[in-house]
Amino acid sequence: QVHLVESGGGLVQPGGSLRLSCVAPGLTRDHYVVGWFRQAPGQEREGVSCINKKSGNTYYADSVKGRFTISFDNAKNTAYLQMSDLKPEDAAVYSCAIALPPVTVPRLLCPTTEGFHYWGQGTQVTVSS
Q1: How many other CB atoms sit within 10 Å of the CB of residue 110?
Q2: pLDDT score at 96
C-alpha cells in the first residue's frame, strides 16, 4: 500500500498563489503518473493536472492552463502544483493520486479518476477576500 501525503493548502485572496506538495515516501518505482484532482462541495472530482514522472509529459485542464504548473522533483520524490492567479472557483479539496503502468499517458489518465491506484487525503484550498 502506498501512502500519499499532501500539503500546502490554505486560504488565499483572489489573484494569489499557493504551492501544493505531494510525496509518497514508500514509493520507489521509477515510472508512474502523479495527478492532482480537486472537488468542490456538490461537484464531481475534476482532474486538474497530471505529470509522468519518467517522461515529464504533462496535462492541464482547460480551466487552469496558464495559471497552474505541475512539476516533479526526483531528488525529493515530490510532486508540486504551483497555482497562480487563483480564482474563487478554484476553491476545493485538492488531492494527489498515483497511476501505475501500463497506462502512463497524462492526457489519457487525467480526465478521469479510473486509472489511479492510490490517493491522498486531500488538502483544502480556499480562495476568498
Answers
A1: 27
A2: 97
